[in-house]
Specification:
The complex is a heterodimer of chains A (466) and B (223). Chain A contains six helices and 30 strands. With 466 residues, chain A is mainly beta. The chains are: A mainly beta (466), B mainly alpha (223). Chains A and B meet through loops of A and helix 2 and helix 8 of B.
């Protein structure tokens, strides 16, 4: 407990943009086959440092087979909420779940170069206290730390629906299930919210048997992955509306609400439209009557390709689907970055008008049947995947692995973990920085990135940018 | 008699000072006034928000003081009541000192329910209890002055005092909290929100203990 709020807590998105820039990144290192232990890499981002762009510390966990994926902070700008006032917490711990093992590590990163495990929550405790498994997205909010889980109870995670549980933000004790009325929600992936407006939005990937051993083509072609998003009364813990995008919009993944809390809209990325292999972004918003609406505002076409260049999974289609697997919105709500993991492209859309996004920039690196090189001449395995934007919006970082078994299906010949960075122009557009290229230790892949002091997919703000 | 007048003035002064004190505590809602006014995007929202917060706080004060004023009907037990009340305040202070966790109930309140939030926040922090020894002190002196009036009259005057203490305290609280909220809202900007936000939890808990000790002390030496 501090006597003053943590200096990395910002009242508004605008204040967060003006704050000092990030010095370190924390990036997931995962062993795709469980031969090594997973860990968190601490990457030096200080341009003046001798070790700039290098992994300067690693927290390697004692277990194997956890498969790290997403993770998040114990506390963020939401601590300045005038209602709950946890203002004196420290942004100090990373909550890192193993998506395969259901084990959760709490890592103390107060001194990034001496980051270490603070607490471990064993899977049995998670199962017993929540009835959920496969913990994934982390957000800190009014009642503590919220963790979405992709699996329900039982060995396959299919005994009962998956959902969100709450953890105490000081002791990291699991409190229990979040939902009081989940309505139609029976799958889970991402979630985020608007705290002053008291709503939450959640999304759907698929149930564990649909992703753990790779994508199941029959399930995909018969539209059995998630294609709905759910709107919740956040504090009443109640599903108030479900919007079905249409069953062909398979895998509605990342939820990115506008950061400015006076706005009532956001975006959701859809991996693939099974009718035409397009990637899609939906804009969702609340209309004048208080009803939630959603409309497809971005489509990205697949690229035709000679079947012999394609992995077996895609040969029947003769095309490379974009595979929109991650999206991220800059803190000024201006640019939406869209990772097209299949095509090997990162797109930048100007979403100043959220109903009419305009493509403002594009970077090509990696990609199925393309393998575009990084500007420094080196290979980039797979394609652009987890993307994170600096608070000031000037640097965009991304890594390359989607999920171990899926990497192997879509990119059977690739291996490796990389993290790269692009610089954003003053009037939009962005280009890869040829001097920033982090190659991960052999046998480890990379996934989500968190920036020291917060980034564009962690902090929730309680005051508008004025 | 003169010393009684001075004590009464001092006690009413304490009512006002405690109001200022509660007002500057972020836990009593001034950041909520800033946030709500900004979210509404109009200046007129601020007075309304402050009024809602004041209503909740006032009700919390009355909710604590009124039952006590009814108990004072038992004039013969006055000292015991004052000592007991003082002990209760100390216990709350010690509890807040030991349990430094945030009241979870506040996290479930809808952001637009400002008066409810303010009421629960005041209750959870023992804000009303802080006034109890002061209020009982005022009543005790008042009772001595009125002498042996009918119990009914005495009770009526104690009830009036309870409302008076709650109202003046709430006005002072709203003034102090409103001043900070409006200054940040109009002049200083949101940057000062986190700069003006101090952790008063420890000081607050100690204040309760001090006020409780004062209450017991004054009860034992006033007769």
């Amino acid at each position: 407990m501090n006597l003053r709020p943590d200096p990395t807590f910002h009242a508004s998105p605008k204040l967060a943009m003006q704050a000092p820039v990030e010095n370190y990144a924390f990036t997931v290192m995962l062993s795709p086959d469980g031969n090594q232990s997973d860990g968190i890499a601490v990457v030096d981002l200080k341009p003046t440092s001798k070790t700039y762009g290098q992994i300067v510390h690693q927290v390697i966990v004692p277990n194997k087979g956890d498969e790290f994926h997403h993770f998040g902070w114990n506390a963020c700008s939401s601590s300045l909420s005038p209602l709950t006032g946890h203002a004196f917490l420290e942004r100090r711990y990373l909550i890192v779940p193993g998506i395969r093992s259901s084990r959760i590590y709490v890592i103390d990163v107060k001194d990034p170069l001496k980051a270490h495990i603070h607490k471990t929550i064993e899977p049995e405790e998670l199962f017993a206290k929540t009835g959920y498994s496969r913990p994934h997205t982390i957000h800190c909010g009014p009642e503590g730390i919220y963790v979405s889980c992709l699996g329900g109870a039982g060995k396959d995670g299919t005994d009962g629906p998956p959902g969100i549980f709450i953890m105490d933000c000081e002791t990291f004790e699991i409190i229990g299930q979040y939902e009081m009325d989940r309505g139609k929600q029976d799958k889970h992936y991402d979630f985020w919210w608007n705290l002053p407006q008291d709503y939450m939005v959640s999304s759907e990937w698929g149930l564990p048997p649909q992703f753990e051993n790779g994508v199941v083509p029959e399930d995909l072609l018969s539209n059995k992955y998630g294609h709905s998003i759910h709107f919740w009364d956040l504090r009443a813990r109640k599903n108030i509306q479900t919007i079905d995008f249409g069953e062909n919009y398979q895998m509605a993944l990342e939820i990115r609400p506008a950061h400015d809390p006076t706005k009532s809209y956001g975006f959701c990325g859809v991996v693939v439209d099974t009718t035409n292999l397009q990637g899609a972004i939906f804009t969702w918003w609340r209309d004048e009557d208080g009803k939630w609406q959603a409309k497809k505002t971005i489509t990205i076409d697949p690229r035709p390709e000679d079947p012999e260049n394609l992995p077996p999974l895609l040969q029947g289609f003769g095309a490379v689907p974009p595979l929109v697997t991650d999206i991220d919105l800059s803190l000024d709500d201006k640019y939406l970055y869209v990772a097209c993991w299949g095509m090997g492209e990162m797109h930048q859309y100007d979403v100043s008008d959220p109903m009419n996004p305009v493509l403002a920039g594009k970077v090509e690196v990696g990609g199925i049947a393309r393998g575009a090189k990084h500007p420094n001449g080196k290979d980039f395995a797979y394609g652009p995947q987890m993307v994170e934007i600096s608070r000031d919006g000037k640097r965009v970082y991304w890594t390359n692995s989607l999920y171990s078994t899926w990497d192997d299906q879509f990119y059977p010949d690739d291996e490796g973990g990389q993290m790269v960075m692009a610089r954003v122009g003053d009037d939009g557009g962005f280009e890869l920085d040829k001097d920033f290229y982090v190659n991960f230790p052999k046998g480890l892949r990379s996934h989500q990135i968190r920036l020291e002091g917060g980034d564009c997919s962690t902090d929730s703000f309680c005051y508008p940018s004025v | 008699m003169i010393s009684d007048v001075t004590s009464v003035a001092a006690l009413w002064g304490a009512v006002i000072l405690s109001g200022f004190y509660h007002g500057i505590n972020p836990g009593m809602g001034w950041p909520l006034a800033v946030s709500a006014a900004l979210m509404e995007r109009r200046h007129a929202a601020m007075p309304w928000v402050l009024a809602m917060l004041a209503t909740g706080h006032f009700l919390a004060m009355v909710g604590i003081l009124l039952p006590l004023s009814l108990m004072l009907f038992l004039v013969d037990w006055e000292v015991q009541i004052r000592v007991g009340a003082g002990l209760l305040v100390i216990v709350m202070g010690v509890y807040l000192l030991v349990n430094r966790r945030h009241p979870k109930i506040l996290a479930r309140v809808h952001p637009a329910r400002l008066a409810l939030w303010s009421f629960l926040a005041a209750m959870a922090h023992g804000a009303g209890l802080m006034l109890v020894p002061i209020y009982l002190g005022i009543c005790a002196i008042g009772d001595e002055e009125t002498g042996h009036l009918a119990a009914r009259t005495l009770m009526g005057s104690n009830i009036m005092t309870a409302f008076g203490v709650a109202a003046i305290h709430t006005l002072a609280m709203t003034f102090a909290g409103g001043l900070i909220a409006i200054t940040i809202y109009i002049w200083l900007g949101l940057k000062f929100l986190s700069k003006t936000w101090f952790n008063l939890d420890l000081v607050w808990a100690i204040s309760l203990i001090v006020v409780g000790v004062f209450g017991i002390h004054s009860a034992r030496f006033s007769h």
